[in-house]
Each structure stands twice: as structure tokens, then as C-alpha cells.
Design brief:
Layout (H helix, E strand, L loop, with lengths): L1 E5 L5 H11 L5 E5 L6 H11 L14 E5 L5 E6 L6 H7 L1 H5 L4 E5 L13 E9 L2 E7 L1
Parallel strand pairs: 2-5, 2-6, 4-5
Antiparallel strand pairs: 1-7, 3-4, 6-7
Helix pairs in contact: 1-2
């Protein structure tokens, strides 16, 4: 397990760069953490560093947002918080996303644990003090 400490919001760019360095050989990430632990904020910063051309927003209501990078890569950002059944993921065509070659960031991944391929890197965020976070990456 690799760990990244985030002392404050001012530390996010450094932490996201470190995340990308640690996970350089991977493109699929399952994020876990309590509400407000920083999952969306970290994903937004990682996508920005990957060159996302559009503003990265939480896909809470749409379930998935797609971003194209300046280099032509596709990034998919899922938020499964509102998923109630696995059928919703099947209806969304999750297989095309989860088994493709694009970058995938899944928040609330525990809601789809049985559908996630082993290729997903497990990422855990924890608030260690007000404004500080710890990111644990299972490689």
C-alpha cells in the first residue's frame, strides 16, 4: 500500500502528480471514502493534470462524465453514490467502460465491487484532520 499525505488544498497538485507517478502503469481506479473525504476533489485534480480540456465536475446525477484530454485520451469519471441496483450499471453499459482502455475513476466503487475487474487499483481516502487527507493506494 502506497500512501500520499495531503496537508491542505494547496497541496493537491503535488499530491495528484505523486498519485499519477505511483500509478503510472494503471488506468482504472476504484475510489473509497466517506462523504467529504476528497474523492471528487482528487479526481478533478488528477484529470486536470492528465490534460482534461473541459471543467471536471461530479457526475452524481449523470452517473458518468466523459472528458477528452489535450492528447486525445478519454477519461471517464463515475459516481455510483445514487446507484441502487446492479441493473443500473448494466443498463449504462458498464462493460464498455470497465473493460476498455481508457482512464476510469469510480467514486463509491464499493457499490459495484462484484463488477469491478481485478485491473482496478483500489484507492482509499481518509480525513486525518480538518483540511488534511491521507490517500492509500493498493497496488
Amino acid at each position: 500500500m502506497k500512501t500520499i499525505e495531503i496537508a491542505s488544498l494547496d497541496d493537491l497538485d503535488r499530491a495528484a502528480a505523486q498519485f499519477l507517478k505511483i500509478t503510472a502503469d494503471h488506468r482504472k481506479f476504484a475510489f473509497h471514502g466517506a462523504m467529504g473525504s476528497g474523492k471528487t476533489t482528487l479526481i478533478k485534480t488528477v484529470c486536470k493534470l492528465l490534460g482534461a480540456r473541459d471543467s471536471v465536475t461530479s457526475p452524481t446525477f449523470s452517473l458518468v462524465n466523459e472528458y477528452i484530454t489535450t492528447g486525445g485520451d478519454t477519461l471517464y469519471h463515475f459516481d455510483l453514490y445514487r446507484i441502487n441496483t446492479m441493473e443500473e450499471l448494466f443498463d449504462l453499459g458498464y462493460e464498455e467502460y470497465f473493460f476498455g482502455d481508457s482512464y476510469i475513476f469510480v467514486e463509491w466503487a464499493e457499490k459495484a465491487e462484484s463488477l469491478l475487474p481485478d485491473t482496478f487499483v483500489q484507492v482509499y481516502l481518509d480525513e486525518t484532520s480538518p483540511g488534511s487527507r491521507q490517500v492509500m493506494i493498493g497496488l
